[in-house]
Write a structure and sequence with these properties.
Elements: H1 3-13, H2 21-30, H3 45-54, E1 61-65, H4 71-78, E2 82-87, H5 90-99, E3 106-109, E4 123-129, H6 137-149, E5 151-162, H7 179-183, E6 191-199, E7 207-214
Helix pairs in contact: 2-5
């Protein structure tokens, strides 16, 4: 993500205590006046590495949180999962449907903080990539619990997020998660299986959490 794109996203995100800016950004991108800084138009490489390393395959129901333009969802569908991918931004969801017109993925507009009751505890695999890290305060806490609530008994949650040490300044958006905040995904019915701190492929590399949890 270039400095200009980071500044653009930060201006819209404000203090991380609102979620309405996601639609604003995607709508501006649709109009050609902005760029979605995290949209690489390919599956997240940490996700593909994790699914390959762990031998993750369907069948089963999978959910992708904050799906954006749909690349992570399509990756999971290619592994044999019945995928529900959702985003709070209708413009993003519509763009994903256009990009993958013949997709088996169910793309839906939904708010992580107000999930359909039928989704609670309904998914064998839940994937959260970089959504929680752009929220702060009570929204971050609520979003963490909401992500965890999607996991079915016996299911798995994968969380990818920017990382920071406890004594580091959180800086500006995206605000990296501490080790304790990653552990917070297991505050309810989930159990932490493994949390790795890994560098990504950016230049210079950015440290990321790769957290796996089960219910």
């Amino acid at each position: 993500m270039t400095p200009d794109l980071r500044a653009q996203a930060r201006q819209l995100a404000g203090d991380g205590r609102s979620t309405t800016w996601f639609e604003t950004l995607y709508a501006q991108a649709e109009a050609g006046t902005a760029t979605v800084p995290w949209a690489d138009l390919e599956p997240n490489p940490l996700l593909t590495a994790w699914t390959g390393r762990a031998g993750v395959r369907g069948p089963g129901r999978a959910a992708v949180v904050g799906c954006g333009y749909g690349d992570d969802a399509e990756h999971l569908a290619g592994l044999g999962f019945d995928v529900t991918a959702f985003d709070i931004a209708p413009t993003a969801v519509n763009a994903a449907r256009r990009r993958f017109r013949n997709s088996a993925v169910t793309y839906a507009t939904a708010d992580l903080l107000d999930l359909p009751p039928a989704w609670r505890g309904a998914f064998d695999l839940v994937v959260e990539v970089y959504t929680v890290q752009v929220l702060q305060g009570t929204l971050r806490t609520e979003a963490t619990a909401a992500v965890a609530s999607l996991v079915a008994p016996g299911g798995t949650l994968l969380v990818l997020a920017r990382a920071r040490h406890d004594d580091e300044d959180p800086g500006r958006m995206p605000w990296p998660l501490t080790r304790a905040e990653i552990a917070g995904f297991a505050a309810g019915p989930l159990t932490e299986v493994r949390v790795d701190l890994v560098p990504d492929g950016e230049e210079p590399p950015v440290l990321r959490w790769v957290g796996t949890f089960t219910r």
